[in-house]
Amino acid sequence: MAKLIVSDLDVKDKKVLVRVDFNVPIKNGVIGDDNRIVAALPTIQYIIDNNGKAILFSHLGRIKTEEDKKELSLRPVAERLSELLKKPVTFVPATRGKELEDAINNMKDGDVLVVENTRFEDLDGKKESKNDPELGKYWASLGDLYVNDAFGTAHRSHASNVGISSNMPQAAAGFLMEKEIKFLGDAVENPKHPFVAILGGAKVSDKIGVISNLIEKADKILVGGGMTYTFYAAKGLSIGKSLVETDKIDLAKQIIAEAGDKLVLPVDNVVATEFSNDAPHKVVEGDIPDGYMALDIGPKSVAEFKDVLKTAKTVVWNGPMGVFEMSNYAKGTLEVGEALGDLTDATTIIGGGDSTAAAKQLGIAPKITHISTGGGASLEYLEGKELPGIAAITNK
Ligand code: AMP
């Protein structure tokens, strides 16, 4: 369903509360990667270019103790934002109270203000993360309009997304949220065929929901990574010391039966004696020998996966094909990523932190149609779930 977008709002002279996702990696006040700040710029820029006042809310990490507050203030993020926007940004080191209210009331059209980390409220009974009704109502009272541009938290019902939305007459999506909904939504609900899903990563249990939802929609599901070997066990193959979730073997059997030849498992693997880059390793087909663990998919599997990908028109990729952090077991992930980058006539979508990291390492990121900013949120979207943060945005 089409959602109200920030560009549908008349923001002039208005105090626009915006939930952004500024949850960036930060250490000793230094931002490791400012991608998420950059991703929020179009929405912020739109509001200030149209003479609105942008009041930004975000969480940063998890706040469990008073100590955490020192490391997880949004002040450095506000400073970086000011550099990126090339204009002053007011930072308020509070999540409520007179200082915040006065700063908002003193804003002029086109001004930008960053409120302190919303999760500072979590020290007091998890008010942000448990969507305390009083907090959402209070934050909503600070502005005239509400825009949610934080896809990364859309799978959570927090005070700064669902809480504020439910206390406003309407809530609009920001441009980043709009883009995420468009690409992930089209892939799941209206994909161009052949539609291929590539699923990897450590655990079957994390991806079961996605596999179940995509069995009907996708033409092929290529499986790699640690979760492969639970499927191997389900097929009666030997798995040696490979990762396995024994309590999920029956479920894997069910999926194999349901999916038929849509589900493509690796035919060969790189196996090693230990979980170490320096361990003796080799390629084997089929059964994993005793004393070995499978840490990557093998060259025949890579060739088969590439063959399937060649004709794909929509591809969604989530999770590495092996232990890509170790160079000897990175090849499967890197080659699959490369094949994705080579597709010129397909919509390619990457969701999740590790696959995104692999895409960046490969330099293929610019060739991918859409790299989702939300790991957990994109998985839940692919599972076909309704995300509370999105449900709370007004339908057009
Ligand atoms: P996830 O967070 O579920 O996407 O899983 C990513 C992690 O899975 C990465 O840290 C990989 O190193 C790990 N992984 C991938 N393949 C394997 C494997 N065959 N055995 C053990 N761990 C793996």
UniProtKB/TrEMBL annotation:
Gene Ontology process terms (BP): gluconeogenesis; glycolytic process
Protein keywords: ATP-binding, Cytoplasm, Glycolysis, Kinase, Nucleotide-binding, Transferase
Residues binding ATP: 207, 325, 352-355
Uppermost EC category: transferase
Enzyme Commission number, as recorded: 2.7.2.3
Residues that, per the record, bind (2R)-3-phosphoglycerate: 36, 119, 156
UniProt main location, coarse: cytoplasm
Pathway recorded for this protein: Carbohydrate degradation; glycolysis; pyruvate from D-glyceraldehyde 3-phosphate: step 2/5
Organism of origin: Lacticaseibacillus manihotivorans DSM 13343 = JCM 12514
The protein, known as: Phosphoglycerate kinase
Recorded family membership: Belongs to the phosphoglycerate kinase family.
InterPro entries reported for this sequence: Phosphoglycerate_kinase, Phosphoglycerate_kinase_CS, Phosphoglycerate_kinase_N, Phosphoglycerate_kinase_sf
GO annotation, cellular component aspect: cell surface; cytosol
Subcellular location: Cytoplasm
Family matches, as Pfam families: PGK (PF00162)
KW Cytoplasm (keyword) present: yes
Organism phylogeny: Bacteria, Bacillati, Bacillota, Bacilli, Lactobacillales
